[in-house]
Every structure is written in C-alpha cells, then in structure tokens.
C-alpha cells in the first residue's frame, strides 16, 4: 500500500488539513493518561481548550515509563497505569511552535486509564515549548465534557465515557 500512496492528508492542531508527500512523515508513538476521580477528569489546559496529559514516547522508554513521565511533566501528578483503553492513529503537523516547524508525524496514540499515586497539581514541570501553549491542568466535571474544546483527533468524550465505565 505504501508504494502506491505518494501523498498523505494530515491535520494541524487547529484541524486544518493539508496534503504532503509520505516521505516527510516520521513515526511518533505517544501515550496519554485518563485520570478520573469521582465525577471529575484531570485535563491539560492547552490554548483555549484541553487535551489528555501525555505525549511522545522516547526511544529509551517503555510505554509505561513515558506515561508516568509525561503525566508528571504536564500535571505534577504521579500515576500508575491501570489498563490501555484506546488506540488510534493521527497524521499530524505539529506546526504550533518553532521547535516543530517542518515536522510531520504518523502518531500512534495509546490511551491508558490511570490512578493517582502522589503529587500535587502544578505547571512548573512544563518544558519550554509546552509553556508557550499550556497552562495549569484542571479537574473538569465529566458532565461538561461534551461542551469542551479538545486539541486532539480522538473522540475525547467517548474515551472519557469508556474510562468512566471501567471504574
């Protein structure tokens, strides 16, 4: 199939689509945590919307190590993975900061249900790039998820509902 496809559609953080040569794309596995306590979910504040805490898996990390690291970086909360609950692919142009200009990713996104094991909410662990667009994470009432703006390609409300049903 790949030798027949010369161009691939991808989206940017705002959902704008473009078509690029397949040779421009790199694999980028990533992992995200879904932390629910009571009737609230912890989400990362990004621009004027939200996303699940998480991000790229480094070459020297396991999926679980990356999940724990990313969650602490974006929220200050230490978590333990319970189980994977969703996997999806996204062809993505992360052109939202100079650091990622000219990069295009075939993102393999893995979502885990997680439990809190320590830490306190903070934005002090955000890297320089994340500080450009991210802010203090927030506990959001699950009943309000349908009205939220998310900066990801998954059906976030469905992922949250699935996670809630497993608790």
Any overview of this molecule?
With about 170 residues, the protein is an alpha+beta fold. Helix content is about 15%, strand content about 45%. The strands form two sheets. Strands 3, 4, 5, 6, 7, 8 and 9 form a seven-stranded mixed sheet that branches. The longest helix has 13 residues. It is globular and about 50 Å long.
Reconstruct the topology from this structure.
Layout: E1 7-11, E2 17-21, E3 25-37, E4 40-46, E5 49-51, E6 54-56, H1 63-75, E7 77-92, E8 104-119, H2 128-131, E9 134-141, H3 156-166
Parallel strand pairs: 3-8
Antiparallel strand pairs: 1-2, 3-4, 3-6, 4-5, 4-9, 7-8
Key structural traits:
3 helices; 46% strand; alpha+beta; two-stranded antiparallel ribbon; seven-stranded mixed β-sheet; 167 residues
Low-confidence stretches: none
Order of helices and strands: EEEEEEHEEHEH
Structural class, please?
alpha+beta
First-residue to last-residue Cα separation: 40 Å
Strand content of the residues, in percent?
A: over 45%
What is the tally of beta strands?
Answer: 9
| Sheet of most strands | 7 strands, mixed
Q: Identify the overall geometry.
A: globular
How much is the average pLDDT? 90
Task: Give me the oligomer status.
Answer: single chain
Give the helix level as a range of percent: 10-25%
Radius of gyration: 16 Å
Count up the helices.
3
Brief description of this entry?
The protein is an alpha+beta fold and 167 residues long. 17% of the residues lie in helices and 46% in strands. The protein has helices spanning 63-75, 128-131, 156-166; strands at residues 7-11, 17-21, 25-37, 40-46, 49-51, 54-56, 77-92, 104-119, 134-141.
């Amino acid at each position: 199939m790949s030798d027949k496809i010369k161009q691939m559609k991808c989206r940017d953080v705002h959902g704008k689509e473009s078509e690029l040569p397949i040779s421009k794309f790199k694999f980028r596995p990533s992992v995200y945590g879904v932390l629910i306590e009571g009737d609230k979910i912890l989400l990362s504040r990004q621009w004027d919307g939200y996303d699940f805490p998480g991000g790229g898996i480094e070459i020297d990390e396991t999926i679980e190590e990356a999940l724990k690291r990313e969650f602490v970086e974006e929220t200050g909360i230490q978590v333990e993975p319970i189980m994977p609950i969703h996997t999806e692919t996204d062809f993505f142009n992360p052109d939202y900061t100079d650091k990622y200009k000219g990069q295009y990713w075939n993102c393999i996104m893995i979502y885990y249900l997680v439990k809190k094991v320590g830490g306190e909410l903070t934005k002090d662990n955000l890297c320089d790039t994340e500080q450009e667009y991210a802010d203090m994470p927030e506990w959001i009432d699950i009943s309000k998820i349908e009205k939220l703006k998310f900066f990801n390609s998954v059906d976030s409300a469905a992922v949250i509902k699935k996670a809630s049903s497993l608790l």
